[in-house]
Amino acid sequence: MSLTVWALISRDNLRRQISRALKPLGPGKLVLIFLRSREQIESVLHRLWTDPVSRFPDLLIAETSPFWDDGTELLTHLRTYQSLDYLPVLEHPTLEKLLKVRSFGAFDILSQPFQDRRLLESIRHLIQSREFLGQKTAYPQRSIDAYLRLFTPEIENPDLQVLKDASYRTKLQKLHRLIRQYPEGLSAADIAGLAHLSVTTVRTCLKTLEETDLIRKESIHQGRSGRPLYIYYPSERKKP
Fold this sequence. Notes:
Layout: E1 3-8, H1 12-22, E2 30-35, H2 38-50, E3 59-63, H3 72-79, E4 85-90, H4 95-103, E5 110-111, H5 116-132, H6 144-151, H7 160-164, H8 166-180, E6 186-187, H9 188-195, H10 199-211, E7 215-221, E8 228-234
Parallel strand pairs: 1-2, 1-3, 3-4, 4-5
Antiparallel strand pairs: 6-8, 7-8
């Protein structure tokens, strides 16, 4: 299959890098159209609606530019007619930017500077996914969550609603730091006592930290009752 890509890239050096990186795909696999200004965007949109030969884009690559936002305005407009994938290029990723592009279904993210190989692998992955799914977009978001954990090491859950809850985020940060101070492990009751939080609140937070692989737990069976006692360790601690 051939992938039609619209690239909202205003800088010459970045356009050259993208062209060079995707050259190994060849003309049979990729149609790359660069849009450098709002005038070009308006022109290509007009041609899209009036010229039956024009092909709807499969992917929108967009950098943050003074001439437009991060491409989400055009993306929203195009998705009212047909689905397409989205690959943002961010020069200085922040938590706010990462959450925004994730909410718009970005399947991957490029953080500048990036290597040619990184972009090529991402596009190849997208082509393979679309071929497998019958040319339908899946928005797999294969590395967005990893980026969120990388840029927010103290916020161990990339879920949008959790991150918006400052109070819950603060508890996660507090418990994560506490558990890292005790590599020998702590029970939920121990953690609740040290953190001055209820056991119920602690268990909810521990579940979130577990799901994001920041901590791990091991069960210890208690005498006659046979009920397991869970001990929580920082994820860096290897099993013996």
